[in-house]
Amino acid sequence: MDGYKFKSFFLFSLLFIFIILYGICFCDCTAKADEQKRVYIIGGDVNFPPYEFMIDINGQKVYRGFNVDIMKAIALQTGIEIEFRPMIWADAIKALDEGKIDAIQGMKYSEERAKKYEFSDSYITNVSAVFVLKDSPVVRMTDLVGKKVAVQEGDAAFQKLQNSNLYELIMVEDQEKAFEMLFSKKVDAVVGNKLVGQYILQQKRKIDMVKLAGQEIDPQAYAIAVRKGNIELLSIFNKGLYEIKKNGIYDKIYEKWFGKPLDYPLQYYKKQAILMLYGFGLMFVIASAMFYLNYLLQKEVKRRMDIEKKLMEKIAFKDKMEALGNLVAGIAHEIRTPLTSIKTFVELLPEKYENPLFREKISYFLPREIERINSLLNSLLDYAKPQKPVRKNENLYEIIENMLILFDPIFKRKKINVVATVDPNLKVYVDRNQILQVFMNVVMNAIEALGSIKDGKLQISAIDNHEKVIVVFEDNGIGIDEDNIKKVFDPFFTTKEAGTGLGLSVSYKLLKENGGNIWIESELGRGTKVFIGLPANEEGDR
What we know:
Layout: H1 2-37, E1 39-45, E2 47-48, E3 52-57, E4 60-64, H2 66-78, E5 81-87, H3 89-97, E6 103-108, H4 111-114, E7 117-119, E8 124-133, E9 148-152, H5 156-161, E10 168-172, H6 175-183, E11 189-193, H7 194-203, E12 210-227, H8 231-246, H9 249-258, H10 266-352, H11 356-384, E13 392-395, H12 396-414, E14 417-421, E15 427-430, H13 432-450, E16 457-464, E17 468-475, H14 482-485, H15 503-513, E18 517-523, E19 527-535
Parallel strand pairs: 1-5, 1-6, 9-10, 9-11, 14-16
Antiparallel strand pairs: 2-3, 3-4, 6-12, 7-12, 8-11, 8-12, 13-15, 16-17, 17-19, 18-19
């Protein structure tokens, strides 16, 4: 009896252990079966070749493309089950937003999209481009302002352009329809994925009818997108991407759809490295030679500038002396007139001293004649003394008045009518003596241009435009030939038999040093206008 009980207990224990083990295995298998039954719905574009598109094989629609193969490889590598749902792109985005699909297999990254979706590691870089017809005048994006542009609804290019009012956007389902509109000239351009566009054009054999305008637009990472917060699924995709890139499956898929990336043997890179070293060595030698040559050139330029400066100083002095020589005769004559009056009064003084009328006249005329001589001498000294480029706020009216006093005898002798209309309060920021010399050179040229012309006239005026004061010298002389106007500021250029050709050249130099400028308008036989721009004040010297 005891033996029978022992056998019964032993059999019962074995049965109990078997039931427990079976239950564990059954539960595990059920759990695995449940896990395997989880099918992830993957959305994609129905017509986005070569990334993803539908193709008709033996009357049956098949979903193909680079993205499709990438997702299949990830599924095999990670052991998950997936189901593709190809649809219009805008509908695919809507389906992901509403949770009807688990992921979109390929989406271009943007900061705006990153607010709504989680992105996997990038598996290709995506760029957009502008496609136009070969004969289109459009060469850059800015040329499309106001024109019709076809873009795929929901595409990254659409999202980038939709807030711009510069273009008339025409939304289409896919890029293929966009190109159909381009070929029928319903739109001026297509903006979309560059690789997709090239693939479509090659398939339709119309690649030679289209050109790219401008540069590539917004290169960004291209990746798998899931709803915000779905980190678990995202980690599965990232793991799969890592594995297929590691084991070489990714490279084979890329080669299938985009061609094999070219590479060179190791010897090639060694040779290139040696060539680069030689190149760097040659560039260093050339750079050193150029640096030394530049040093020599700078030294030579400085030497020549010093020579030019000394030459211009000599020219300015010579020009001033010639101007003084031309004026001395007239000034001497002008001084003799008041001296004669003074002499006459002095000679009559002993015999007419008691005459009240004589004393009244001598008291009136003598101071004025003396002041006239003094004014002439001061003007002459202001011009003749050594020039220094010291600029101050000077009264323009006084400079012009002093200059006209020097020329007054010549104006009277040649019967030239001079009219000066200058605001007595107008100020200029210049070196007084240098500008006086410039004015004298211009007036001397005007006098020679008037020559023996009857009713010769010289008008001097000034215009204040706040930053600059424009002084205008206008005569009705013989004028200047159009070809000669371009040369009048060249050193030693002259049309006068006895001229040196230095007056206007020196004037131009002096004006530049004073922050001014000069230009001439003239017509042969009609007269000449000389415009001299001077800084109105110290702040106006810009």
